[in-house]
Amino acid sequence: MDKTNNELKRSLGFWSALSIVIGTIIGSGIFFKQASVLENAQSSTMAILAWILGGIITLMAGLTIAEIGAQMPYTGGLYIYIENLYGRICGFLAGWMQVVVYGPAIIAAVAGFMSILTANFFGLSSAWRIPIAVIAILFVGLINFFSNKVGAAFSIITTIGKLVPIAAIIIIGLFWGENNALGQTISEIHRASGNFGVAVLSTLFGYDGWILIANLGGEMKNPKKILPKAIIFGISAVLIIYTLITIATLRFVPANEILRLGENTTSYLATTAFGKIGGKLITIGIIVSMLGTLNGKMITFPRIVYAMAKRHDLPFSRFLSYVTPKGKSPVVATLFIIVLATVMMIFFDPDRLSDLCIFTIYIFYLLAFFGIFILRKTNEAPRPFSTPLYPWVPIIAILGGLFVEISEIVNDPQGILLFVGIVIIGLPILYLVKKYYGEKI
């Protein structure tokens, strides 16, 4: 293996990075979470507020990470940030959590949702859902076997493609909807938990994925400038889009009807507004949206595997760090993620896995948020990007992270113990790997 050429290529520009941020965030969440957010918020006004608040928390987090990422523009993202801030052990655990649990589970969940829509679209039985999901993962994985330009181009295409049905839903709801988006209450109060916090938590699941662009820092042409701009503009665009979709949906479909329809709300809206053929077209757009999200995650997670393997932090690091001579793509790392995601999809419930992963990754988000105060004191070099309204923006990000952690602990303490245990198991594995390579931790 030619170690001198075993490096990733810096070829991603601002528009590619921006499309990856938007494409990675906008997937199934906004289309499938409307009913659950409304159910917990108990009114249309509070549901809209929940989406806005979730977006603001995410934007504060993005502004905080943007300053940190601009000072550490390397492949690996959160894994590298945590290591530089808190040492090798914490950094390894951040990377281990993402490559073994969080990444594969999120990919499996998105592919699972996409397969449900695809099977319904073609009138196939539920037995086809796992095969369709596996095919989708393999297809997107194959795209990312080539140069990162191919995956980025696919991300741009799918991002543009997903904006078409989104624009259609927003326009039809805002201009042809007959309901007042504000002030609608739920008649079946007993169905709702009555917890506004849980409603906001549900929206945060929909916003998650924005930080994955940081994993591509080593492949951007000018990461110190591109990374902060892509994160800030990307999250801001998604916040506006999510708010408009929620308002449009509530104007076109009454709140109680949204609760009754559940995950079928968007399809009902499309079919009612545009007819049977129009509904099919919107469904295709949503499927494209999910493919784009799948692609964004398939681009980013193998880069964490690659970054860890380059440091001999994983078993079989020699193979996992391999990149193709021409396209500079981490193909073995991509295969690794594909296999784990497929296994999780076949043997586990991806929905619960992804929910628990949000808790786990927010532990490391919080560490990163606190890291901005450490860098301000220890790093005397000029900052390529400074978080505005410091220290209030990172404080809001920290409070939002604590909110996520407390909410999830209350909702699923057993699952939390399980996932914390999976993260801790990484420590003896790191010890054995380092012993094999004759290295110290």
From TrEMBL:
Compartment list: Membrane
Keywords from the UniProt entry: Membrane, Transmembrane, Transmembrane helix
One GO CC term on file: membrane
Alphabetical list of Pfam families matching this protein: AA_permease_2
Statement: the UniProt record of this protein carries the keyword Transmembrane helix: yes
InterPro entries found in the cross-reference section: AA/rel_permease1, AminoAcid_Transporter
UniProt membrane topology term: Multi-pass membrane protein
Ion transport as UniProt keyword: no
Molecular functions per Gene Ontology: L-amino acid transmembrane transporter activity
Transmembrane segments: 12-32, 44-68, 89-116, 128-146, 153-176, 196-218, 230-253, 273-294, 330-347, 353-375, 387-404, 416-433
Signal peptide as annotated in the record: none
PANTHER family for the chain: AMINO ACID TRANSPORTER, SOBREMESA, ISOFORM B
Protein name per UniProt: Amino acid permease
Species of the source: Lactobacillus ultunensis DSM 16047
